[in-house]
Structures are given as C-alpha cells and as structure tokens.
Amino acid sequence: MLQSVRYFSNARSQNHQSSVDPTEISHFNMLASSWWDPHGPSRLLHLMNPLRHEFIARCLSSQSDPATNSRLQYLDIGCGGGIFAESATRLPNTASVTAIDASPGVLAVAESHKRRDPLLMSPGRLRYLNTPIEKLPKPASEAEKYDIITMFEVIEHIKHPASFLSSAIPHLKPGGWVILSTIARTWTSWITTKVVAEDIARIVPRGTHDWNKYINEDELSTWFLQQGGWESPRSVGVIYVPAVGWREVPGSEKLGNYFFGIRKLPV
Amino acid sequence: MQYRATLWLRDSIRTIPKLQLRPTQRCRYATAIDSPELFDVVCVGGGPAGLSLVVGLRASKTTSNLKIALIESLDLDKGRMRNPSPDVYSNRCSSLTPASVRYLQEIGAWSHIDISRVQPYQEMQVWDGITGSRIAFDWEVNTRRDVQPSTIAYMIENQNLTTALQTYLEKLGDITVISPVRVDSIDLGNSTPELDLRSWPIISLSNGRRIGARLLIGADGANSPVRTFAGTTSRGWDYNRHGIVATLKLSGSGWGGEGYKIAYQRFLPTGPVAMLPLPGNMATLVWSTVPERAARLKSISKCDFLAMVNAAFRLSPVDLEYMHSVSSGQQEEFEWRVKHSAADSTKVPMEVVDVQDGSIASFPLKMRHADTYTGERVALVGDAAHTIHPLAGQGLNQGQGDVAALVSTIQAAVETGADIGSTLSLEAYNAKRYAENNAMLGVVDKLHKLYAVGSGPIVGLRSLGLKAVNEIRPLKKFFMKKAAGV
Ligand SMILES: Cc1cc2nc3c(=O)[nH]c(=O)nc-3n(C[C@H](O)[C@H](O)[C@H](O)COP(=O)(O)OP(=O)(O)OC[C@H]3O[C@@H](n4cnc5c(N)ncnc54)[C@H](O)[C@@H]3O)c2cc1C
Ligand SMILES: C[S@@+](CC[C@H](N)C(=O)[O-])C[C@H]1O[C@@H](n2cnc3c(N)ncnc32)[C@H](O)[C@@H]1O
C-alpha cells in the first residue's frame, strides 16, 4: 500500500505533456483497423460498454441534489475507436459528446465509423478531437465545462496518471462526475490480464497491458480526496466470465477490472 | 458462426441476383437526389410475427422513439376481420400457448382480440392410430380434481390475432405502414462524404420507393426475401405431406361441454390428423397426409369428405387405406365399417356433421431452419427463421417467442446507446432463441418420422407405434413446459 501510493504520487511532480506514452499510442494505432470488429481484439471493450452506462446511471441517481443538466455534456478522454462515445451520444439524455484520443490512427477509425450513423452525424452531437488531454484548451467559462468526464481503460496505459487526471479535472463542472474504469494492480490481475488474457487465451493482443501501470481503487479515491473538493467516491468490480460476459461482482474491485466514479463538490 | 454472419452481408450483393433491380430501373434510382429515406427498423412482413414485433416496439417506452416502417405485400387493411359471423370461422387457425398469450397481454394487444371467437381447451387426447395406445395431455399442475381446470392452449383464427394487432397498432400510431407493397430487391447502400451506408440494407419497393434500414427485420415467412438478401442458408427437408385444413361443424359442443374443451390428435402412418375446438359446435381440422390423398380429399363430395374425417378418428389404418383408394362412395363405406369398429365414441371427437363451404385447403409441409437469425443490420423472426411441421401447433408460437426475445434485445441496445443494427447488439437474440427453436424443431421432426413409416411388416409397425407412445411421455412434459413458457 505504502509503496503504491508513492508510485502514484511520484507522477504528480512530472511535466504535464509527458503523460502520453509513445509506445502506448503506437500500440493502439496498430489496433485501429480492427477496433469495430465484433470478434476482434476490442471485443471485451464492446461487451463491457453496457455496464459503463449502468454504472454512470447509478452514480447520477446516488446524488440527492438534481443533476447539473437535464441533458448531459460528456468529455470522453482516450475514446479509442469511439465505443463509449458513440453509445453516449445515442442516449436520449445526452446533449453532446466531445471525445478525444492521442492516437491519430484510432481517431481516424472513430471518425470513419461515425459516418455509418446519421444520428451521430447530426450537427453538434458528437465531436472527435485528436489531442492528448493536456493539450485540450482549458475552458474559458463554466458553460464550456462538462457534466461528465469519462476515461475508460485509459489510466492503466498512462505513464503519469496523476498529472493526466490533473489535466482532466479543470474541464469538469462543479457537481459533475469523473467516471473511469481500469484494472487493479494485484496478483490476480497480473495473472488474468497478462498471463491469461494476453498469453493463454489471447483475448487481447500481447503488449496491451503494462501491469506496473495498474492503479488500485483506494489509491484513486485517496488521491482525489486529498486534493479536496470531491465527494461520493464509488467503485464496483467487474469480472469477465467466458461465454457469459462481464458481470458486476461487488468486492472484486480489489482483484482486477473495476469502475470508479467520484463527484466534484457542487458550488 | 457470428463471424460468418458479418461476412455474409458483404457477400450478399453477389448472392441475390434474382432480387436485384433491372439495370434500367437502377439507373433511375442511382442519383444522389433520390437518396433513400432512413428508418431505424424496417420490418418486412405483416403476418403474426411482423405485426407483433412492430407492436411490441411501439408499445415499449424504451423503443417508442424508433422510426419504424412495416412493409406487407398483401393489403393489410383488406385482410382485417370485419363483422364476423359467429358460425363462420377462418380455416387458418392456430393454437396459442399460454406463454404467447402472456406476451400479447404484456404488450397490451390481447385486449383487442375478439375473445368470443377464441376457444381455450383444457385437455388433449393423443393416440397411436395403429396400436390405439393413448396419452392424455391435461394440465399436470392440476393433480387435484376440484381445482378449476387450466388451459393448455387457446384456439384462435390467425386473422383474429392479426386484426387485433393492427387495431392496436393504429392506436399506438407513429409508424409507417407500407401495404400493399412488395419488396422487390435489397442492396447495400453507398458511401458519400456525409454518410457511409455501405452496411445499411436499402430496400427497393414495388411502388418505386427506396428506404434504408438501420435494422432490417425479416418477418417475411418461409420464403423470406430478407433471408435471401442476408445470404443465410436455411436447411431442412420437405415432408412430402400436405396439411389439409377445414372448418367443421360437430354434432355438439364436445364431450366436456362448453367449459371443458378437448383437442384430439391421432397419429396415422401417413401423418397426424388433429381436430381442435372452436367456440360452440365448431372445430378446425389439420390433417397431414400424402399429397395424393390430400388431393383426393379436396375433390370428393362434401358427404364423402365428412365421412373421411369421421373415419380418420375411428377406423383402422387398413380401412382408411381402402377408403382413400376409392374415388367416391366414402360415406357408405364409413357407415358400414364404423359399425364394426371398436372405437369408444366418447374418446374421439363428436361426429362431424358439416364442413364450411370453401374452407377446405391444403399446404405443403416442410421443416426448415436458418443457419443463423442475425447478421449485421439483419434479424429474422418467425417462419423466416424456421418452419416446423404443424403437428404440435408450435409455428406461430415460436414466432411470438422470437418477437419477445428480439424486442427485449433491441430494448437493451437502446438503453445502453448501442446501434440496434450492430452484430454485437443482435447476437443476444440469436443466443436466446436458436437453441430453443432447434430443440423444438428436432423433437417435432422426430415425432413425425416415428409415425411416418408407410410400409413394412405390420408387426414392425406396431412395435414402432408402441415405442413412439412410450417416447411421447417425456415429450408430453416437454410440450407442456414450452406451452407454459417455463
Ligand atoms: C396447416 C398449418 C397449420 C398450422 N397450425 C398452427 C398452430 O396450430 N399453431 C401454431 O403456432 N402455428 C401453426 N402453423 C404455423 C403458422 O401458421 C406459422 O408459423 C405462422 O403463420 C408464421 O407467421 P409469420 O408471421 O412468421 O409468417 P407469415 O404468416 O408467413 O407472414 C409473412 C408475411 O410476409 C409477407 N411477405 C412475404 N414476402 C414479402 C415481400 N417480398 N414483400 C412484402 N411482404 C412480403 C407475406 O405476404 C406474409 O403476410 C400452422 C401452419 C400450417 C401450414
Ligand atoms: C484501451 S483504449 C480505450 C478506448 C476507449 N476508452 C474504450 O474503452 O473503448 C486506451 C486509449 O487511450 C488512448 N490514450 C492513451 N494515452 C492518452 C492520453 N494521454 N490522452 C488521450 N488519449 C490517450 C489510447 O490512444 C487508446 O486509444
């Protein structure tokens, strides 16, 4: 635990631009063409997507005061081919989605896949930007901020997660939520993601994960709460059961994949 | 299998030459100004499955925002039941299982049914035409006699169901019904700088209209053009049997009276003959037999036809064989032979005294199962996905089961913002229905084959018959469970 906090907080002193890991970006560039193949290497992300919406809905319904907006504005960081961004755009209570990714290859895939759906093409609904979060212009006014910032399966690919999160936070409205999913750094996650998923079952390509970059759920909430201005951290573990799909398993956030949500204090 | 499904759409451009437009027409529609109108759901086929599907989508809050079109080549409005007479019934009747009825209730359609024309039945007598061994299907849950007998299934005219669905659909509104208009061809769309419709089926209609589908649903029956477009193979065989249907009038309302109706089915070597109760003294016949006998049954006089139907439930296969072989005089033959038959008259349906004019018709019987029900932006339901021998009265019910599963699959996709036409969204539907339908198709097919041995030593036939009856016992459980939807 001590060691892991050190690991995480070390990153805070780092230069902002450096959260992008060039080997990561080129890895995802390589995967780009198969991003939307339902039986390709991104199948697990596709299957996980419905659970993301359920988790967000639960976070929103847990707050006692009304939501920041009746129709929500999303910022999806590390959007990849747009699995979550597209789906969030289609929801009736979504106003708009801005989705960014540092990899030009995957973003081109996202842009081209978007053209398959007239709904996504209607003006102002879904906007893709090829930029790392650090370079996204900071909001000039409250109106330019987002109700929900999402980062699904991204921080485990980031060299300096603390600086990455620090760049994201200014884009969030007071009362809004940061929602992410990632993998805990445990022996089980090492076995399931590195050994089973990458080497044995090959459900994700080799080199997708760097186990040393995994972050635990308690490290995340500690980091946010120490900053001040945050409330209601939530998390739930999810487990992939072959032939069944992803299932929420409370308590398993300590073992492997988990969702995490935390709310910026309202003004 | 799913992987193949994604590929077949791309292949389908080649595999549907007979559905494609003639080149002259093509040029006319290929202009950019004529870009197709886009829908979220295009359902081809307004039979029991298609109507129930669009109603299910309209009635659900989650899916009520979808833009839906229904295309039917027959005139849907003309096909509606209007001021029906209480002693005239359509010859196309189905037995709806409690599971199907429950679904129709859930979506709010059942209250639009003309209930005076629906006949629930509480018992089913099934026996082997050769050995006479019987098995009674009655509701197992009712082991205690004093409990109100519960319903095995509900006999209903298909038209009563489709009329109710149409009435309800009109009330729900906000749907584009395109009828009577035929689907002429289906192609994949084009890519323009604004939109990439290369995965979208574009449907060309007989009135010249072109519409695009985020999700194209084939509810277009056994010869499904949508299935052909998708390039999905449908496997199976023809039974070399025809199903004769007719609307009959009996000498009374049945041995159990109005409140306790009984369905009868006798397995003859040429196929099963079934008599299913309708309200009052009416009943509907489904008689599967070889094509020559079916043709003869349709050509003989009314009196001779009545005699044949009565004989089918009472006389031995040997007697029946003789009566099928003569071109007339079946009535006299029956009157003479029935005196010598051992049949207990209360264990067979009441005597048939009349057949409704023009109600005798026949359909070739076959078994088919599509390799998959889903592909990118395509799903099949009902007879488009599977055709079953009518001996267990399951065809329409399987379609309702498909519809319930597909509607809930689409709901789940909408709730999580998925593209309802994507293979990933649709694969749950295939998973929910394929194995279940396949099991039903297999059981019914085997049941037919066990009995459909027309020649061979009598002893062999008898032992086969006995064996079949033994095998019916677990089947009884199987069917009763399916009927209840558990
Ligand atoms: C003798 C017999 C007895 C039966 N008894 C029972 C029973 O007791 N219980 C039971 O559950 N089932 C029974 N069935 C089966 C039942 O009738 C069918 O399973 C059911 O009707 C199928 O419904 P569907 O909507 O899938 O297809 P269909 O009813 O075949 O509807 C398909 C529709 O698509 C339309 N269509 C086709 N091509 C096009 C095109 N190119 N463009 C536009 N429209 C098109 C057709 O006009 C048609 O209206 C029986 C069948 C037979 C033959
Ligand atoms: C595993 S993918 C997840 C994609 C998407 N969120 C999903 O779950 O479908 C991780 C993505 O994060 C992107 N990424 C990595 N570092 C980033 C950074 N600093 N800023 C923006 N995107 C980044 C990668 O290019 C890659 O597309």
TrEMBL record, chain A:
Keywords: Magnesium, Membrane, Metal-binding, Methyltransferase, Mitochondrion, Mitochondrion inner membrane, S-adenosyl-L-methionine, Transferase, Ubiquinone biosynthesis. Its cofactor is Mg(2+). One of its GO terms (molecular function) is polyprenyldihydroxybenzoate methyltransferase activity. It is found in: Mitochondrion inner membrane. Pfam families: Methyltransf_23 (PF13489). Its main location: mitochondrion. One of its GO terms (cellular component) is extrinsic component of mitochondrial inner membrane. One of its GO terms (biological process) is methylation. InterPro entries: SAM-dependent_MTases_sf, UbiG_MeTrfase. It catalyses: a 3-demethylubiquinol + S-adenosyl-L-methionine = a ubiquinol + S-adenosyl-L-homocysteine + H(+); a 3-demethylubiquinone + S-adenosyl-L-methionine = a ubiquinone + S-adenosyl-L-homocysteine; a 3,4-dihydroxy-5-(all-trans-polyprenyl)benzoate + S-adenosyl-L-methionine = a 4-hydroxy-3-methoxy-5-(all-trans-polyprenyl)benzoate + S-adenosyl-L-homocysteine + H(+). Pathway: Cofactor biosynthesis; ubiquinone biosynthesis. Its EC number is 2.1.1.64, 2.1.1.-, 2.1.1.114. It is a peripheral membrane protein. S-adenosyl-L-methionine binds at residues 52, 78, 101, 152. Mg(2+) binds at residues 153, 156-157. PANTHER family: METHYLTRANSFERASE (PTHR43464), UBIQUINONE BIOSYNTHESIS O-METHYLTRANSFERASE, MITOCHONDRIAL (PTHR43464:SF19). HAMAP family: UbiG. Belongs to the class I-like SAM-binding methyltransferase superfamily. UbiG/COQ3 family. O-methyltransferase required for two non-consecutive steps during ubiquinone biosynthesis. Catalyzes the 2 O-methylation of 3,4-dihydroxy-5-(all-trans-polyprenyl)benzoic acid into 4-hydroxy-3-methoxy-5-(all-trans-polyprenyl)benzoic acid. Also catalyzes the last step of ubiquinone biosynthesis by mediating methylation of 3-demethylubiquinone into ubiquinone. Also able to mediate the methylation of 3-demethylubiquinol into ubiquinol. Component of a multi-subunit COQ enzyme complex, composed of at least COQ3, COQ4, COQ5, COQ6, COQ7 and COQ9. This is Ubiquinone biosynthesis O-methyltransferase, mitochondrial. It comes from Patellaria atrata CBS 101060. The gene is COQ3.
From TrEMBL, chain B:
It is an enzyme of class 1 (oxidoreductase). Gene3D superfamilies: FAD/NAD(P)-binding domain. It is a peripheral membrane protein. It is found in: Mitochondrion inner membrane. The keyword Oxidoreductase applies. Component of a multi-subunit COQ enzyme complex, composed of at least COQ3, COQ4, COQ5, COQ6, COQ7 and COQ9. Residues 40-436 form the FAD-binding domain. It comes from Patellaria atrata CBS 101060. One of its GO terms (cellular component) is extrinsic component of mitochondrial inner membrane. The gene is COQ6. Pathway: Cofactor biosynthesis; ubiquinone biosynthesis. This is Ubiquinone biosynthesis monooxygenase COQ6, mitochondrial. It comes from the Eukaryota. HAMAP family: COQ6_monooxygenase. GO terms for molecular function: 2-methoxy-6-polyprenolphenol 4-hydroxylase activity; 4-hydroxy-3-all-trans-polyprenylbenzoate oxygenase activity; FAD binding; oxidoreductase activity, acting on paired donors, with incorporation or reduction of molecular oxygen, reduced flavin or flavoprotein as one donor, and incorporation of one atom of oxygen.
